[in-house]
Amino acid sequence: MDPADAVFSALADPTRREVIRRLSEHASMTATELAGVLPVTRQAIAKHLAELEQASLVVGERVGRENRFRLTPAPMGEAVSWMNSVGAQWDDRLSRLGEHLQSP
């Protein structure tokens, strides 16, 4: 799967977006800690974290008996760059269309 596709797929789910938001506010969190502040089970959080990890948006690290997850935002920057590129193409197309419509 293309890295941008994986990022967009991972971010399509509102729970995963909330996990990203929570991780952006903390250095790291466990699945149990995330389940304590979100209205889903620990097992559901673990599945969401696996999807986010597959998209390289989070990384898990074993610390003692805990698996702590931290945000790795670089793939989001790549997705934003892709969106900016596509947006610029559309801006150019719409500008040319506007010019065409205004010409006599």
Structural account:
- The mean pLDDT is 90.
- Helix 1 runs antiparallel to helix 4 (42-54) and helix 3 crosses helix 4.
- The protein has a domain at 3-74: Arc Repressor Mutant, subunit A (Orthogonal Bundle).
- The protein has 104 residues and is an alpha+beta fold.
- 66% of the residues lie in helices and 13% in strands.
- Strand 2 and strand 3 (66-71) form a beta hairpin.
Assign the CATH superfamily of the domain at 3-74. Answer: Winged helix-like DNA-binding domain superfamily/Winged helix DNA-binding domain
Query: What order do the strands of the largest sheet run in, or round the barrel if closed?
Result: 1-3-2
Number of H- or I-type helical stretches:
5
Uncertain spans? none
Largest sheet: 3 strands, antiparallel
Elements, N to C (H/E): HHEHHEEH
Structural class: alpha+beta
CATH class of the domain at 3-74: Mainly Alpha
Approximately how much helix is present in the residues?
Answer: 55-70%
Summarize the structure.
The chain has 104 residues and is an alpha+beta fold.
Annotate the secondary structure layout.
Layout: H1 3-11, H2 14-24, E1 29-30, H3 31-37, H4 42-54, E2 58-63, E3 66-71, H5 74-102
Antiparallel strand pairs: 1-3, 2-3
Helix pairs in contact: 1-4, 1-5, 3-4
